[in-house]
Amino acid sequence: MSRRSLRLLLLGLAVLVTAGACLGSAAFAQGAKPKRGGILNTVLIEDPPGLIIHESATVSNVWPVSPCYSNLVYFDPLKPLESADTVIPELAERWSWQESYKNLVFFLRRNVKWHDGKPFTSADVKYTFDVAREAPEQPARFRLSARKEWWTNIASIEAPEPYTVVFHLKRPQPSLLLMLASGYSPVLPAHVPLSELRQKCVGTGPFRQKEWLRGQLVELERNPDYFVPDRPYLDGIRYTIIRERGTRLAALQAGRLDAFVPLEMTRAMADTAKSGAPSLVITEIGQNGSDNVLLNHKRAPFDNPLVRRAVNFALDRRAYVKSVRQDGAVIGAALMPKPMGFWGLGEPDLRSLAGYRDAARDKAEARRLLAEAGFGPGKPLRLEMVTRTSPIYVDLASFAVDQLRLVGIEATVKQLDTSAWFPALARREFQIAANLTAGGFDDPDAYLVENYKCGSSRNYTDYCNEAVDRQIEAQSQELDRAKRLKMVADIQRTLEAEVARPMLGWRKEYFAQYPYVKNLVPHNALYNYGRMQEVWLDK
Q: Please, what is the Cα angle at 488 between 486 and 489, to 5 degrees?
């Protein structure tokens, strides 16, 4: 695009969008005047698997790394329910949609510096998302571009001026703005090799890396050159790595931690923590995280649809809510249901589906299907269920194994460390797996494309239906919200009928922190509130 064409584009009739709230505008949202200083002590359940968020699919990476980086746009840290209306500027000062949501133009902040003192420009934005989408002309590659499918609708990215960047899309896609606001989508420095960024974050965020002692802690310190005036308030953040669940909980109760980590806290743990430390503040909110069972569609016995259907009938969703999550979850299909989210199927839609009906009736149907597939008391189906070595995963796997036993399937649990877990899923080295999946934000494009489209790297079951692919494409560009909601409901019913990925339910977050921690507001998507630029300590 020439400079003249760019000027015409920017002076056109398209509406220029500027968020009503800017970073730093909500410092007084919780009342008292913020205090400067102090170290926030929080926790990790394991070492981060590297420090590049784009290569990651775990909060163990996003939670400690988010404060180092910035996005083009970000979800307002003080608004717990995310939507297009809560997106605010970060590295972009403002943005403009063009050509009916086919071009998205960002106008960038000036005088922003990377932690090493180099200037931030539009070239960094183009570099980051060209690498993420594996653009042919970009030689740099992530080890795993965990959300490559998010960016497949981008035709090209243009940086015509140092402080302007244009995303050209193949078709309309309003959700692109939400993708860019997710904590999964920080902008990386083009001048620092990826191999270095895996060990040390070099960002533009409110905090910079001080130390990473593997197996012990990740420590960040205040960035004195942060582009938002008077932020951050904290002097630093310390993420202590505590691998054992009981030890983490004891550290919280004893006051050695100021705040916990998203994902980990179940309802039962929250009750225990509160009983031992009554002053703790526990916030219940959606997590945009599901518990599900992965069936490898291309590997025996799950290449047989009868066996897939049998497993689906065997899993009692309501028993899962009661026993595994102690009522700290709700049943739901492929998307998070109301009131935690917007797009999921409601209870009336679920009542007629396999696994959501009467448990005895569904298990009888599971035994019938297994017999039809050639399995029974004289020839039991034996499986190895893999899962991640984390208690919240193992709890789910143990429940699933017990449910399968009730219909005559003999299964054992095999645990994998995080370093082995995600590669095993990527290579499809499993028959059946107990899995937790969280979306980057509450929108069908964050979940359906990534987990269900043919050939998607994170479509771990290798489910493939080209008609569903076309439906996913169609809903993505539908601008009428009511029409889109109906289209998305139809897709979810098909995914359930075809046992694309048996869904058990959607977890609630029970985020724990002490009352002196201010402006750390949990969101209904667990990856999007870790920036910490507004957090302060009232002590």
A: 65
Taken in order 314, 456, 188, 227, the sign of the CA dihedral is negative
Model pLDDT, residue 119: 98
- The answer, yes or no, to whether the previous bond of 48 is cis (omega within 30 of 0) is no
Beta strands in 163-216 (DSSP E): 164-169, 207-213
Residue 186: closest CA among 269, 104, 129: 129
Closest to 525 in 3D by CA, of 86, 228, 97:
86
Order of strands across the sheet that contains 236-241 = 39-44, 236-241, 217-222, 207-213
CB atoms within 10 A of CB 501: 25
Nearest to 206, CA basis, from 520, 537, 533: 533
Q: Does residue 57 or residue 89 have the better pLDDT?
A: 89
> What is d(CA 97, CA 298) in angstroms, rounded to the nearest whole number?
41
pTM of the model: 0.90
| Distance from C-alpha of 47 to C-alpha of 522, rounded to nearest angstrom | 22
Q: Which two tokens stand for residue 383?
A: 């499986």
Per-residue burial over 378-398, b if 16 or more Cβ lie within 10 Å, else e, is eeebebebbbbbbbbbbbbbb
226 strand-pairing partners: none
Q: What share of the chain is helix, strand, coil (3-state, %, to 5)?
A: 30, 20, 45
Q: At 138, is the secondary structure helix, strand, or coil?
A: coil
Dihedral angle sign, alpha carbons of residues 302, 308, 314, 317? positive
pLDDT the model gives residue 31: 61
Nearest alpha-carbon partner for 392 in 280, 277, 502, 508: 508
Burial class, 448, CB count within 10 angstroms (exposed 0-12 / middle 13-18 / buried 19+): buried
* Rounded Cα distance, 262 and 405, in Å: 32
Q: DSSP of 361-411, one letter per residue?
A: HHHHHHHHHHHHTT-BTTB-EEEEEEEESSHHHHHHHHHHHHHHHTTTEEE
User: Both tokens of residue 2?
Assistant: 């020439």
Annotate 419-478 with DSSP letters as a single string: HHHHHHHHTT--SEEEEEEE-SSSSHHHHHHHHHSTT-TT-TT----HHHHHHHHHHHT-
**Cα–Cα distances in angstroms (integers) from residue 257 to residues 280, 516, 518, 537, in the given order:** 11, 12, 14, 13
Instruction: Indicate the Cα dihedral angle 439, 443, 446, 448, nearest 10°.
Output: 110
pLDDT tens-digit map of 142-156: 998 888 999 999 999
Read off the tokens for 300.
């025996």
Residue 42 near residue 261 (C-beta atoms within 8 A): yes
Return all residues near 509 (Cβ < 8 A) that are at least 6 apart. Answer: 262, 263, 265, 283, 284, 285, 286, 287, 289, 522, 524, 526
Q: How many CB atoms lie within 10 A of CB 115?
A: 21
Q: In the sheet where 103-108 sits, what is the strand order?
A: 16-17, 92-98, 103-108, 164-169, 154-161
Strands 207-213 and 217-222: antiparallel
Query: How far is residue 175's CA from residue 197's CA, in Å, rounded to a whole number?
Result: 28
pLDDT tens-place string over residues 16-26: 444 333 444 34
